[in-house]
Specification:
This protein is α+β, with helices and mostly antiparallel strands. It has helices at residues 7-28, 35-52, 69-75, 77-81, 83-88, 96-120, 137-154, 161-168, 173-195, 262-273; strands at 204-206, 212-215, 218-222, 231-235, 282-284, 287-290, 315-316. The chain has 3 domains: 31-168, Arc Repressor Mutant, subunit A, CATH 1.10.10.520; 173-235, no CATH class; 262-316, no CATH class.
Length: 317
Protein backbone atom coordinates (compact mmCIF):
# COMPACT_ATOMS: atom_id res chain seq x y z
CA UNK A 1 0.00 0.00 0.00
CA UNK A 2 0.97 3.61 -0.48
CA UNK A 3 2.02 4.93 2.95
CA UNK A 4 2.45 8.54 1.82
CA UNK A 5 1.25 11.48 3.86
CA UNK A 6 -1.69 12.10 1.52
CA UNK A 7 -4.69 12.71 3.79
CA UNK A 8 -7.27 11.04 1.50
CA UNK A 9 -5.07 7.98 1.11
CA UNK A 10 -4.61 7.77 4.86
CA UNK A 11 -8.36 7.90 5.37
CA UNK A 12 -8.88 5.14 2.83
CA UNK A 13 -6.28 2.93 4.53
CA UNK A 14 -7.94 3.54 7.87
CA UNK A 15 -11.32 2.54 6.44
CA UNK A 16 -9.83 -0.70 5.08
CA UNK A 17 -8.37 -1.48 8.48
CA UNK A 18 -11.70 -0.87 10.18
CA UNK A 19 -13.46 -3.07 7.63
CA UNK A 20 -10.96 -5.87 8.12
CA UNK A 21 -11.25 -5.64 11.90
CA UNK A 22 -15.06 -5.69 11.74
CA UNK A 23 -15.04 -8.85 9.61
CA UNK A 24 -12.53 -10.45 11.97
CA UNK A 25 -14.72 -9.66 15.00
CA UNK A 26 -17.76 -11.18 13.27
CA UNK A 27 -15.88 -14.36 12.39
CA UNK A 28 -14.52 -14.75 15.92
CA UNK A 29 -17.99 -14.28 17.42
CA UNK A 30 -19.45 -17.26 15.57
CA UNK A 31 -21.34 -19.50 17.98
CA UNK A 32 -21.97 -16.74 20.52
CA UNK A 33 -25.21 -14.87 21.26
CA UNK A 34 -23.83 -11.69 19.71
CA UNK A 35 -22.98 -13.32 16.35
CA UNK A 36 -26.37 -12.78 14.60
CA UNK A 37 -26.52 -9.12 15.64
CA UNK A 38 -22.91 -8.37 14.62
CA UNK A 39 -23.43 -9.91 11.19
CA UNK A 40 -26.89 -8.37 10.70
CA UNK A 41 -25.85 -4.84 11.67
CA UNK A 42 -22.72 -5.04 9.52
CA UNK A 43 -24.57 -6.08 6.34
CA UNK A 44 -27.95 -4.41 6.71
CA UNK A 45 -27.12 -1.31 8.76
CA UNK A 46 -23.49 -0.14 8.80
CA UNK A 47 -22.74 -0.94 5.14
CA UNK A 48 -26.06 0.56 4.06
CA UNK A 49 -25.47 3.78 6.01
CA UNK A 50 -22.10 4.10 4.31
CA UNK A 51 -23.73 3.55 0.92
CA UNK A 52 -26.37 6.20 1.61
CA UNK A 53 -23.62 8.69 2.39
CA UNK A 54 -22.60 8.55 -1.30
CA UNK A 55 -25.28 11.01 -2.32
CA UNK A 56 -24.33 11.06 -5.99
CA UNK A 57 -25.45 7.44 -6.32
CA UNK A 58 -29.03 8.14 -5.24
CA UNK A 59 -29.99 11.23 -7.21
CA UNK A 60 -32.00 9.24 -9.75
CA UNK A 61 -32.94 6.12 -7.79
CA UNK A 62 -34.31 5.10 -4.43
CA UNK A 63 -31.65 4.94 -1.70
CA UNK A 64 -31.49 1.78 0.44
CA UNK A 65 -33.09 1.85 3.89
CA UNK A 66 -30.92 0.47 6.74
CA UNK A 67 -32.59 -1.75 9.33
CA UNK A 68 -31.53 -2.10 12.96
CA UNK A 69 -31.29 -5.55 14.53
CA UNK A 70 -32.26 -4.60 18.09
CA UNK A 71 -35.28 -2.57 16.98
CA UNK A 72 -36.47 -5.26 14.60
CA UNK A 73 -35.99 -8.03 17.18
CA UNK A 74 -38.33 -6.30 19.63
CA UNK A 75 -41.01 -6.12 16.94
CA UNK A 76 -40.58 -9.79 15.95
CA UNK A 77 -41.78 -11.38 19.21
CA UNK A 78 -44.92 -12.83 17.62
CA UNK A 79 -42.98 -14.20 14.65
CA UNK A 80 -40.44 -15.77 17.00
CA UNK A 81 -43.20 -17.71 18.74
CA UNK A 82 -44.42 -19.03 15.38
CA UNK A 83 -40.92 -19.96 14.20
CA UNK A 84 -41.65 -23.65 13.61
CA UNK A 85 -44.73 -22.81 11.55
CA UNK A 86 -42.78 -20.29 9.47
CA UNK A 87 -39.99 -22.75 8.72
CA UNK A 88 -42.51 -25.30 7.43
CA UNK A 89 -44.21 -22.78 5.13
CA UNK A 90 -41.80 -22.49 2.22
CA UNK A 91 -44.43 -21.62 -0.39
CA UNK A 92 -45.35 -18.25 1.14
CA UNK A 93 -43.28 -15.06 0.92
CA UNK A 94 -42.10 -14.24 4.45
CA UNK A 95 -42.50 -10.81 6.06
CA UNK A 96 -39.60 -8.70 7.33
CA UNK A 97 -39.99 -10.05 10.87
CA UNK A 98 -40.32 -13.64 9.68
CA UNK A 99 -37.14 -13.32 7.61
CA UNK A 100 -35.31 -12.08 10.71
CA UNK A 101 -36.50 -15.12 12.68
CA UNK A 102 -35.31 -17.52 9.94
CA UNK A 103 -32.05 -15.57 9.64
CA UNK A 104 -31.32 -16.05 13.35
CA UNK A 105 -32.38 -19.68 13.45
CA UNK A 106 -30.44 -20.73 10.34
CA UNK A 107 -27.31 -18.94 11.57
CA UNK A 108 -27.55 -20.83 14.85
CA UNK A 109 -27.85 -24.18 13.04
CA UNK A 110 -24.97 -23.41 10.68
CA UNK A 111 -22.73 -22.17 13.51
CA UNK A 112 -23.24 -25.39 15.46
CA UNK A 113 -22.51 -27.49 12.35
CA UNK A 114 -19.32 -25.61 11.63
CA UNK A 115 -18.11 -25.92 15.22
CA UNK A 116 -18.72 -29.68 15.12
CA UNK A 117 -16.79 -29.91 11.85
CA UNK A 118 -13.87 -27.97 13.36
CA UNK A 119 -13.88 -30.18 16.46
CA UNK A 120 -13.55 -33.37 14.39
CA UNK A 121 -11.06 -31.95 11.85
CA UNK A 122 -7.41 -33.03 12.00
CA UNK A 123 -4.42 -30.71 11.98
CA UNK A 124 -3.50 -31.69 8.42
CA UNK A 125 -6.97 -31.15 6.97
CA UNK A 126 -8.13 -27.89 5.39
CA UNK A 127 -10.28 -25.47 7.33
CA UNK A 128 -13.85 -26.81 7.20
CA UNK A 129 -16.45 -24.81 5.29
CA UNK A 130 -20.16 -25.21 4.63
CA UNK A 131 -21.15 -24.90 0.99
CA UNK A 132 -24.60 -24.09 -0.36
CA UNK A 133 -26.80 -26.99 -1.42
CA UNK A 134 -30.39 -26.50 -2.54
CA UNK A 135 -31.35 -29.70 -0.68
CA UNK A 136 -29.67 -28.56 2.56
CA UNK A 137 -32.37 -26.91 4.68
CA UNK A 138 -29.89 -24.98 6.83
CA UNK A 139 -28.10 -23.27 3.95
CA UNK A 140 -31.31 -22.79 1.96
CA UNK A 141 -33.03 -21.08 4.90
CA UNK A 142 -30.03 -18.78 5.38
CA UNK A 143 -29.85 -17.86 1.68
CA UNK A 144 -33.61 -17.22 1.57
CA UNK A 145 -33.70 -15.02 4.68
CA UNK A 146 -30.50 -13.08 3.97
CA UNK A 147 -31.38 -12.39 0.33
CA UNK A 148 -34.90 -11.32 1.26
CA UNK A 149 -33.57 -8.95 3.93
CA UNK A 150 -31.26 -7.36 1.39
CA UNK A 151 -34.14 -7.12 -1.08
CA UNK A 152 -36.20 -5.27 1.54
CA UNK A 153 -33.32 -2.86 2.16
CA UNK A 154 -33.06 -2.03 -1.55
CA UNK A 155 -36.79 -2.12 -2.33
CA UNK A 156 -36.62 -5.30 -4.42
CA UNK A 157 -39.45 -7.83 -4.58
CA UNK A 158 -38.95 -10.67 -2.09
CA UNK A 159 -39.40 -14.34 -2.94
CA UNK A 160 -40.58 -17.49 -1.20
CA UNK A 161 -38.16 -20.21 -0.19
CA UNK A 162 -39.56 -22.39 -2.99
CA UNK A 163 -38.83 -19.71 -5.61
CA UNK A 164 -35.35 -19.06 -4.25
CA UNK A 165 -34.60 -22.78 -4.26
CA UNK A 166 -35.40 -22.82 -7.97
CA UNK A 167 -33.19 -19.80 -8.70
CA UNK A 168 -30.23 -20.51 -6.41
CA UNK A 169 -30.33 -24.24 -7.10
CA UNK A 170 -30.51 -23.62 -10.85
CA UNK A 171 -33.52 -25.91 -11.20
CA UNK A 172 -34.88 -26.05 -14.74
CA UNK A 173 -38.71 -26.12 -14.51
CA UNK A 174 -39.10 -28.18 -17.70
CA UNK A 175 -36.93 -31.00 -16.31
CA UNK A 176 -38.72 -30.92 -12.95
CA UNK A 177 -42.11 -31.06 -14.68
CA UNK A 178 -41.06 -33.93 -16.93
CA UNK A 179 -39.75 -35.89 -13.95
CA UNK A 180 -43.07 -35.38 -12.15
CA UNK A 181 -45.05 -36.60 -15.17
CA UNK A 182 -42.83 -39.68 -15.55
CA UNK A 183 -43.22 -40.48 -11.85
CA UNK A 184 -47.00 -40.20 -12.18
CA UNK A 185 -47.08 -42.53 -15.19
CA UNK A 186 -44.92 -45.06 -13.32
CA UNK A 187 -47.32 -45.01 -10.36
CA UNK A 188 -50.32 -45.54 -12.66
CA UNK A 189 -48.63 -48.58 -14.21
CA UNK A 190 -47.70 -49.85 -10.73
CA UNK A 191 -51.39 -49.86 -9.75
CA UNK A 192 -52.08 -52.20 -12.67
CA UNK A 193 -49.31 -54.53 -11.47
CA UNK A 194 -50.74 -54.54 -7.93
CA UNK A 195 -54.19 -55.40 -9.33
CA UNK A 196 -52.70 -58.21 -11.39
CA UNK A 197 -53.79 -56.56 -14.65
CA UNK A 198 -50.61 -57.55 -16.45
CA UNK A 199 -51.94 -57.56 -20.08
CA UNK A 200 -52.71 -53.83 -19.96
CA UNK A 201 -49.47 -52.89 -18.18
CA UNK A 202 -47.03 -50.91 -20.28
CA UNK A 203 -43.35 -50.30 -19.75
CA UNK A 204 -42.46 -46.72 -18.87
CA UNK A 205 -38.98 -45.39 -19.63
CA UNK A 206 -37.56 -41.90 -19.68
CA UNK A 207 -35.01 -40.47 -22.10
CA UNK A 208 -33.33 -37.39 -20.51
CA UNK A 209 -33.49 -34.04 -22.31
CA UNK A 210 -36.30 -35.25 -24.63
CA UNK A 211 -39.92 -34.28 -24.12
CA UNK A 212 -41.49 -37.64 -24.78
CA UNK A 213 -42.06 -40.94 -23.03
CA UNK A 214 -41.87 -44.41 -24.56
CA UNK A 215 -44.74 -46.68 -23.51
CA UNK A 216 -43.93 -50.13 -24.80
CA UNK A 217 -44.19 -49.75 -28.60
CA UNK A 218 -45.67 -46.25 -28.69
CA UNK A 219 -44.15 -42.80 -28.35
CA UNK A 220 -46.12 -40.46 -26.08
CA UNK A 221 -45.50 -36.76 -26.77
CA UNK A 222 -46.42 -33.99 -24.33
CA UNK A 223 -47.84 -30.94 -26.10
CA UNK A 224 -48.31 -27.66 -24.14
CA UNK A 225 -50.06 -26.08 -27.14
CA UNK A 226 -53.12 -28.35 -27.12
CA UNK A 227 -54.69 -28.22 -23.63
CA UNK A 228 -57.65 -30.34 -24.73
CA UNK A 229 -55.23 -33.17 -25.61
CA UNK A 230 -52.04 -33.09 -23.57
CA UNK A 231 -50.82 -36.53 -24.68
CA UNK A 232 -50.27 -37.37 -28.34
CA UNK A 233 -49.06 -40.85 -29.31
CA UNK A 234 -47.50 -42.39 -32.37
CA UNK A 235 -46.21 -45.88 -33.11
CA UNK A 236 -42.50 -46.51 -33.31
CA UNK A 237 -41.15 -46.81 -36.83
CA UNK A 238 -38.88 -49.69 -37.82
CA UNK A 239 -35.28 -48.72 -38.56
CA UNK A 240 -34.43 -47.95 -42.16
CA UNK A 241 -32.24 -50.88 -43.31
CA UNK A 242 -30.34 -48.54 -45.64
CA UNK A 243 -29.53 -46.00 -42.92
CA UNK A 244 -26.01 -46.36 -41.41
CA UNK A 245 -27.16 -44.56 -38.22
CA UNK A 246 -30.36 -46.34 -37.11
CA UNK A 247 -29.50 -49.79 -38.48
CA UNK A 248 -26.55 -52.10 -39.04
CA UNK A 249 -24.76 -51.20 -42.27
CA UNK A 250 -21.76 -52.86 -43.89
CA UNK A 251 -19.51 -51.64 -46.66
CA UNK A 252 -16.17 -52.50 -48.21
CA UNK A 253 -13.34 -50.01 -48.68
CA UNK A 254 -10.27 -50.40 -50.87
CA UNK A 255 -7.31 -49.01 -48.92
CA UNK A 256 -3.54 -48.92 -49.40
CA UNK A 257 -2.47 -50.08 -45.93
CA UNK A 258 1.14 -48.99 -46.47
CA UNK A 259 0.16 -45.34 -46.93
CA UNK A 260 -3.26 -44.73 -45.36
CA UNK A 261 -3.41 -43.54 -41.77
CA UNK A 262 -6.23 -43.84 -39.27
CA UNK A 263 -6.75 -40.08 -39.69
CA UNK A 264 -7.42 -40.65 -43.43
CA UNK A 265 -10.07 -43.20 -42.53
CA UNK A 266 -11.71 -41.01 -39.90
CA UNK A 267 -11.60 -37.61 -41.62
CA UNK A 268 -11.68 -38.36 -45.36
CA UNK A 269 -13.95 -41.37 -45.36
CA UNK A 270 -16.13 -41.54 -42.24
CA UNK A 271 -16.73 -37.82 -41.81
CA UNK A 272 -16.40 -36.48 -45.36
CA UNK A 273 -17.83 -39.37 -47.39
CA UNK A 274 -20.30 -41.00 -44.98
CA UNK A 275 -21.23 -37.87 -43.03
CA UNK A 276 -20.52 -39.14 -39.50
CA UNK A 277 -20.31 -36.53 -36.72
CA UNK A 278 -18.22 -36.86 -33.57
CA UNK A 279 -20.18 -39.63 -31.86
CA UNK A 280 -18.56 -42.76 -33.28
CA UNK A 281 -15.72 -45.12 -32.41
CA UNK A 282 -13.50 -47.43 -34.46
CA UNK A 283 -12.65 -50.92 -33.18
CA UNK A 284 -10.90 -53.98 -34.53
CA UNK A 285 -9.74 -57.26 -33.04
CA UNK A 286 -6.90 -55.41 -31.27
CA UNK A 287 -9.36 -53.19 -29.41
CA UNK A 288 -10.34 -49.53 -29.46
CA UNK A 289 -8.57 -47.56 -32.17
CA UNK A 290 -10.41 -44.24 -32.09
CA UNK A 291 -13.07 -42.23 -30.31
CA UNK A 292 -13.49 -38.56 -29.38
CA UNK A 293 -11.09 -38.86 -26.45
CA UNK A 294 -8.79 -41.54 -27.90
CA UNK A 295 -6.86 -39.76 -30.66
CA UNK A 296 -3.31 -41.07 -30.15
CA UNK A 297 -3.56 -43.42 -33.12
CA UNK A 298 -4.70 -40.90 -35.72
CA UNK A 299 -1.23 -40.40 -37.28
CA UNK A 300 -0.40 -44.11 -37.34
CA UNK A 301 -0.69 -46.13 -40.54
CA UNK A 302 -3.41 -48.74 -40.66
CA UNK A 303 -0.80 -51.48 -41.07
CA UNK A 304 0.77 -50.41 -37.76
CA UNK A 305 -2.58 -50.84 -36.03
CA UNK A 306 -2.93 -54.53 -36.92
CA UNK A 307 -4.88 -54.00 -40.13
CA UNK A 308 -3.65 -55.86 -43.21
CA UNK A 309 -5.02 -57.75 -46.20
CA UNK A 310 -5.85 -60.79 -44.08
CA UNK A 311 -7.13 -58.85 -41.09
CA UNK A 312 -10.63 -59.41 -39.78
CA UNK A 313 -13.28 -56.72 -40.06
CA UNK A 314 -13.19 -53.66 -37.91
CA UNK A 315 -16.32 -52.07 -36.44
CA UNK A 316 -17.62 -48.53 -36.49
CA UNK A 317 -20.55 -47.55 -34.32
Amino acid sequence: MDHSEDSENAKEIEKLRQESQALKNIKESMGTESFPQLLFDKVYKDDIVRLRSMEEMWKTRRPPEPIDYATLLKEAAAAEEARDTILKDGQRVWTLHENLVVFRDSLDRLSKRLQEMKATATEDSAEPVITFDKDDEDTLDFVTASSNLRSIVFGIETKSRFDIKQMAGNIIPAIATTNAIIAGLCVLQSFKVLRGDYPSTKEVSYIPCMSFVILLTRQIFLSPFAPERLFASDRLRDPNPDCPVCSVAQTRVLVDMSRATLNDLVEDFLRLQLGYGDEFVVNNEVGLLYDVEETDNLNKKLSELGMNIDATDYTIY
